[in-house]
Amino acid sequence: MNRNYDKMIERHRLTITAFVLTFAALGQIILSFVLYNEEGNIFIRNLGWILLWISAIFGWLPMFTLRKWGKVPDGKAYVHTTELVDRGIFGIVRHPQYLAGILLGIGLSLIVQHWLVAILGVVVAGISYSDTHSEEKTLIGKFGAKYEEYMKRVPRVNFLLGMLRLFDRKNKHK
């Protein structure tokens, strides 16, 4: 009985988190058009655009990478992998699409340079990062020790560290 209660609480938590994340992300995007600060710092704005483009890469590449190497059954979405994927974009970070959400929240905040968009960006980035923890538990349950070993090699969302480790691994194999 206690286990069913825990599952119900987790479902409610996920529902509320998804609602807040959706509200914050859509709010941030819509308010970006309304509250854009033309007088803002150009360096900060350009940094935001760079993060937005990096976000697009980390958001889109996993769809192709998981389908290519994850042994997804025919007719299933790309997230229904049957094999752990630890190469391509997943050789840099374990959660590229969550990283995309984090970078999107930060990038829009830097581009728009308005306090309300920045607050929503913190919410988007915070929830996106927080969700990686529950995703880790799910993936450990699905892939076991293989995923735990992968966790030691590849950082959760730190793509700079991930690229350094990837280059280091490639140099060791030469």
Whole-Å distance between the termini? 55 Å
Discrete helix count = 6
Count of extended strands: 0
Radius of gyration, taken over Cα atoms and rounded to an integer in Å: 18 Å
* Shape assignment: globular
In this structure, how is the largest beta sheet organized? none
Estimated share of beta-strand residues? under 5%
- The level 1 CATH classification is Mainly Alpha
Count of domains: 1
Secondary-structure class: mainly alpha
Helix content: over 70%
Please mark out the parts with pLDDT under 50 across 5 or more consecutive residues, or reply none.
none
CATH architecture: Up-down Bundle
Mean pLDDT: 94
Instruction: Report the order of strands and helices.
Output: HHHHHH
Indicate the CATH topology: Four Helix Bundle (Hemerythrin (Met), subunit A)
Description:
- The protein has 174 residues and is mostly helical.
- It contains six helices and no strands.
- The chain has a single domain (2-172), classed as Four Helix Bundle (Hemerythrin (Met), subunit A), CATH 1.20.120.
- The mean pLDDT is 94.
Properties at a glance:
174 residues, mainly alpha, Four Helix Bundle (Hemerythrin (Met), subunit A), 6 helices, globular
